[in-house]
Known about the structure:
Blueprint: H1 2-11, E1 42-45, H2 47-52, H3 54-60, E2 62-64, E3 70-73, H4 78-90, E4 97-101, E5 105-106, H5 115-118, E6 126-131, E7 136-141, E8 154-159, E9 164-169, E10 182-184, E11 189-194, E12 206-208, E13 230-232, E14 261-264, E15 286-290, H6 296-306, E16 315-319
Parallel strand pairs: 1-4, 4-6, 5-7, 6-8, 7-9, 8-10, 9-11, 12-13, 13-14, 14-15, 15-16
Antiparallel strand pairs: 2-3
Helix pairs in contact: 3-4
Amino acid sequence: MKRIKLMKALAGMGTLSVLGIGTAIxxxxxxxxxxxxxxxxxxxxxxxxxxKNKKLRDACNLAxxxxxxxxxxxxxxxxxxxxxxxxxxxxxxxxxxxxxxNITSVVAxxxxxxxxxxxxxxxxxxxxxxxxxxxxxxxxxxxxxxxxCLNINxxxxxxxxxxxxxxKFLGAxxxxxxxxxxxxxxxxxxxxxxxxxxxxxxGLKSIDLSYSSLAMIGSNAFQDCRSLMExxxxxxxxxxxxRPEFQFNFKAFYNCSNLKNIFFPKVxxxxxxxxxxxxxxxxxxGTFHILDSTSQADALQSFRAISPFDNESNWITTVYN
Length: 321
């Protein structure tokens, strides 16, 4: 815990789908295109499964609200970790993923350094958040929820045909998830907040935020993501009448040394869009892709005036009219 806070300060910050738990294991699937990769053998954490399975309920220290809905996963601790570990070990077939169905919150440190998600000899490597209802689900994944879960390599989101998920990444939920290479955000998944250090020091290779309604990207959000090669940004970050001081905060993509392609939906309006050192330490060569501009000359002039990089002279700008 303390090492996390210290590293954040130094950085400059100023479920499982066994469907029918314990009885049968099936393959989880997604209901809408584009589909994230199938999780394979997974253990489902949902209200209906918890009703049927007291052992799982106790092992995860789960909470159900007055309407009978699973609302959050309580804070992780040594005792909870051991109970959960014992529960997984008791299953005849070990799951390789966790599928959380219709939950609204994963609280701070919910699976912080969880044995099943962080030890090399364990096989749970994938997480899915699913909305199976024909409505909008508001989901919060809070500070350090999966911090240090080194086994996680993929996080998926899925919704039913008429459903959506509004997700908030609050604090640093996937900090130090160094093997997390994929996060799948299809069009029905709307990222509404992406706060400080959300994916700092993770292993992400690319991220597509183009369907999101973000007003800003937090400080150090992707700092030290050295495998990150491509970002697609949402239109909501540009051209707003009311917006925060910076849409890209301090060191948001700092030291992403392999970042080579950045897709802007529009031309950034002015230099106040970028905080200090947002892209410093990124690849020495790359491409800014501006996807919507009526004038190539104006786009190039406007963008060059912003200079968000310390080495932007080696980058080229491609404008799509």
